[in-house]
Design a protein that fits this description.
Strands 1-2-3-4-5-6-7-8 form an eight-stranded mixed β-sheet. It has a domain at about 5-170: TIM Barrel. The chain is an alpha/beta fold. It contains eight helices and eight strands, in the order ββαβαβαβααβαβααβ. It is globular and about 50 Å long. It has helices spanning about 50-60, 80-90, 105-110, 130-135, 140-155, 170-185, 205-215, 215-225; strands at about 5-15, 20-25, 70, 95-100, 120, 155-165, 185-190, 230. Bound molecules: iron/sulfur cluster. Iron/sulfur cluster binds next to loops.
Length: about 230
C-alpha cells in the first residue's frame, strides 16, 4: 500500500475543528476542479512533500498539547486505505479526528465513520450549477450520498458553502438552506468568497461578494432554520 501523501500542514489552529485546538494535514489529490480553488498545488495526485512518518512522530510530541487532528486537502478520502490506516494510528494517540470533505467519496466516508469524530462537508451550489463550478457531473449526487451517510452516524458535523457570486445567488443560498433544514442538518456555515487569484474574465466586486452578508433579512431567515449558523466573513 502506498503511504499517505501529505502536501501541507498547519501546526496549530482554533478554527478548523469546533471547540478544539487542532493541527491540520493537507493531503494531495482532488477529483474536483472548483473555479475558486485556493489550493491548486494540491489537486494532482503526486508525492506529498511531508514524510508521513516524521509527521506522525511530530504528532506524538503534540499529545497533551493539541486535542484534534483534521484531515483536509485536496480531498483526503481520495487516499483510501492509506488514509484510513493513518487516521486510525493518529486516533490511537488520543486525538479527536476531523475531516474536511467535498463529499465525493461516500463509500470511503462510510468506511471511516467509526474513526472520524466530526466532518465539515462542502455543499457548493445548487444541483444545476454544480457541474459548472466543480467540473464534474456526478459530484452533487455523491455529496448528497455523503450527507446521508453522515446523518445516519448521528455524529457531529457542519455543512458549509462558499458564496462565490459567480455560482451562488441569494436565491440559491436560500434554496440550499431550506434543503438542508428539510434533511435535518443542524449546523450550517456560510463562507465569504475571497478570491485568491485574479480572474480577469470573470472577476467579482466586493459588493457582489458581500451581498449575502449585508442582507439582514436573508441572514435572519437562514438563522431561523438551524441550531447554529456561522457567517464567516
Ligand atoms: S474540492 Fe476543494 S481542493 Fe478540490 S478543487 Fe474544490 S476547492 Fe479545490
Amino acid at each position: 500500500m502506498r503511504d499517505i501523501q501529505i502536501g501541507g500542514l498547519v501546526s496549530f489552529t482554533t478554527i478548523d475543528y469546533p471547540g478544539k485546538l487542532a493541527a491540520v494535514l493537507f493531503l494531495v489529490g482532488c477529483p474536483l476542479r472548483c473555479a475558486y480553488c485556493s489550493n491548486p498545488h494540491l489537486l494532482n495526485v503526486g508525492d506529498g512533500e511531508y514524510d508521513p512518518d516524521k509527521v506522525f512522530e511530530w504528532l506524538k510530541s503534540r499529545v497533551g498539547k493539541l486535542e484534534a487532528v483534521v484531515f483536509s486537502g485536496g480531498e483526503a478520502l481520495m487516499q483510501g486505505d492509506a488514509l484510513i490506516d493513518y487516521m486510525r494510528r493518529v486516533r490511537e494517540l488520543g486525538f479527536a479526528i476531523g475531516l474536511h470533505t467535498n463529499g465525493f467519496y461516500p463509500d470511503t466516508l462510510a468506511r471511516v465513520a467509526d474513526i472520524v469524530d466530526w466532518i465539515g462537508l462542502d455543499y457548493k451550489a445548487t444541483r444545476a450549477k454544480y457541474p459548472e463550478l466543480v467540473g464534474q457531473n456526478i459530484a452533487y449526487d455523491h455529496m448528497m450520498r455523503s450527507l446521508d451517510v453522515w446523518l445516519a452516524t448521528g455524529k457531529e458535523f457542519e455543512v458549509r458553502i462558499t458564496c462565490d457570486p459567480r455560482f451562488v445567488s441569494k436565491m440559491d443560498l436560500m434554496e440550499i438552506a431550506n434543503d438542508l433544514h428539510a434533511r435535518g442538518v443542524k449546523k450550517f456555515a456560510v463562507q465569504k468568497y475571497v478570491p485568491h487569484f485574479e480572474d480577469y474574465e470573470h472577476g467579482t466586486t466586493s459588493e457582489q461578494r458581500n451581498q449575502f452578508f449585508a442582507d439582514e433579512n436573508l441572514r435572519a431567515t437562514i438563522n431561523a432554520l438551524f441550531d447554529s449558523v456561522i457567517w464567516r466573513e
